[in-house]
Amino acid sequence: MKRLLLISLLLLSGCSSEPASPKGDHGNADKPKVALIMKSLANEFFSTMVKGAETYQAENPDQFELVVNGIKDERDLGRQVALVEEMIASNVDAIVIAPADSKALVPVLRRAKKAGIVVVNIDNRLDTEVLAAEGVEIPFVGPDNKAGAKQVGAYLASKLKQGDGVCILEGVLTSFNGQQRFAGFAEAMQDAGIKVIDHQTAEWEMSKANTIASSMLSEHPETKAVLAANDSMALGAVAAVKAAGRSGEVLIVGFDNISAVQQAIRDGKILATADQHGDQLAVFGIEKALQLLQDPQAVVEDVETPVDLITQESLTK
């Protein structure tokens, strides 16, 4: 009987679990878990960001764990909100997010912060008015999209004549980065005395940009250039210009510096783009998150990251 009692006690001891972590303790403090939540991973720009983050984690395996999530369609706001909720439930230490919408993601990110999770905003800045209304501070780590677009626009303007007409393909209208890129393009055109004869959203999508650019070229045959708020739309414009038989006549610029556009620039199909160093952008956000985890009392400040003009000349240097 004593032997049976001893075996029973040993079995009970072996089946016991660790005590649950107290509220606010998000796991191993020596190795925090960072969730990277992206927009569409079908877009090369965001897949490049993920590869950069994974490479950084592999080079620093003792510093943090990385969990990567993304949505299939950049307009699927509901799924991105659900991903944040899943990460809250998973008890991650930090969320680094490229929000698909500047306003819609703020409430769920406020809940994440209330749960004790560090939140860092990358790529597309969250709306400052909505953040203030929700009473939450979230640092933005990313480039000045307006300045980057203005650089690209000014370079394009140097290849045009005063009075020429251009069209602009905008991103998702509720995305701050899309708004800022449109503003930068428009300001560069105004400064150069060039007319914006049409502008429409193609919602970051190549196929939609192809359709809209085709319509623009048909309706406005005087178009001398198309300015696209991202490189996927620029590639859509390239196809539209080719289909219209106007390759070499209509100049095209983009924004993001994805590899396909680098080749198109070398081939003379696209004039220029802006490089916001996508391979490092998520890394910059992760570094900010780790800093805030180490010092929870640190002042929440934005971090401006570089953005550079990319042309045929710069690619051949």
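Next protein, fold it too.
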Amino acid sequence: MQTQEKEAGLCFPHLLNSSCRRSGRPPAESMFMYITLSSMSVLTVALNLLVIISIAHFKRLQTPTNLLLLSLAFSDFFVGFLVVFQILLIDGCWFLGDVMCVGYYIVDYVITSASVEMVVLISVDCYVAICEPLRYSMKVTKRRVCISVSGCWIFSFLCVFIVMKDNLRQPGRHNSCYGECVVVFDQFSGLVDILFFFIGPVSVVVVLYVRVFVVAVSQARAMRSHPLSVHGSARVTLKKSDLKSARTLGLVGLAFLICLCPYFSLTLTGQEAEFQASSFAFVLFYFNSLLNPLIYALFYPWFRKSAKLIVTLQVLKPGSSQINVE
């Protein structure tokens, strides 16, 4: 009887001496986690797909800033699928093999690191728009944005092979039992990861948004103090639009910081990274990909309008791409 109970608690009962043990969570807790993660996965995929279709379909939305949001939504879209692997790990067992384990980490690393870089580019775009508005159209063009976005994705692909080099040579070498999925970064790989995808990006985002906040506050005060004229009214309207956009992008940056810091705090306390479906830091990190389109829905009228046209299938009509949804 005791042997049967012991085997029931193993990931691979036929590997009695070498199998990992299940997490042993109460059924109610496992069900709650399953419903939470499943809902988060579905909503993340669906909402980011709306962002992707909106910007890709409607020509008026294909501005340099929105192209950055498109790339961010693209990475967030795939993060929604990555949450599925956390659902599979609710019981604490990995059944897909060592190669798939490393493959998951590679895909996860490329997508999430690209997301971090997109937030940095968005903060730069916001900084130029608010602090150097007269030079914005010259400095920020669609061509430069496309080159920058491509460079970020290429950089993420290159870094993943530096960080994962030891794990690629022998997948599963750091597993202590069957049913575990662990990758370990050496000192150099960990340093690259922390510098390029945590300390560096966070520093840039904080510095730029603080500067944007200071300039935005001064401009808002100036607009309230100046009397309106016919010409001045148009100018104020434009400035208000810029400030509203900066506020929205600032919320994206704030959400990024809140969701990123707990995750990287774990990596600063130890080099070993492990699948933990119950880890608050992991869930919060993935939740950022759901939070971004929710911010767009609350503060971008164009997203609400375009989402309505997509859901009602109005985008299938000829010439729908020319509709002004701004």
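About the second fold: Residues 29-322 form a domain with the Rhopdopsin 7-helix transmembrane proteins fold (CATH 1.20.1070.10).
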